[in-house]
Amino acid sequence: SDDFKDKVDFYKVDVDEVPDVAQELGVRAMPTFMIFKNGEKVAEVVGANKRALEQAIRSNL
Predict the structure, then answer these.
(1) What DSSP string describes 27-39?
(2) From 12, 13, 17, 29, which residue has the greatest number of CB atoms within 10 Å?
């Protein structure tokens, strides 16, 4: 969303191509969105729930 432009970096990981990353982070369902702040995971949203994802991002800005 443009609301987060210049505030948030988004990265996409293909868990089929790098299953070790999925295992290390505990990804069990797709999509899974993880929010990291200063290198620490601070939130996770499982499923395609736009409202929950936006709320998680806003609460961790």
Answers:
(1) --SSSEEEEEETT
(2) 13
What pTM does this model have?
Answer: 0.86
Homologous superfamily of 2-58 = Glutaredoxin (3.40.30.10)
pLDDT in tens, 22-49: 999 999 999 999 999 999 999 999 999 9
| Nearest to 56, CA basis, from 38, 30, 32, 39 | 32
Rounded Cα–Cα distance for residues 17 and 53 (Å): 24
Rounded CA separation 49/61 (Å): 19
Alpha carbons within 13 A on the beta-carbon side of 42:
14
